[in-house]
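Milestone M4 deliverable, item 7.
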Amino acid sequence: MTERISKSQRFKMMNPIIQFFKFIYLSIKIMIVVAGGHGGTREVK
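Output delivered:
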């Protein structure tokens, strides 16, 4: 029983962390593309 609980807790703790890193990775990728494409941090209106 203890192994099952620990495994489930690990999965629950790891899942949000993975989602968080995915979000950061995608946001950084988008920022690099936008900065490289427009040559700055200006927003196109």
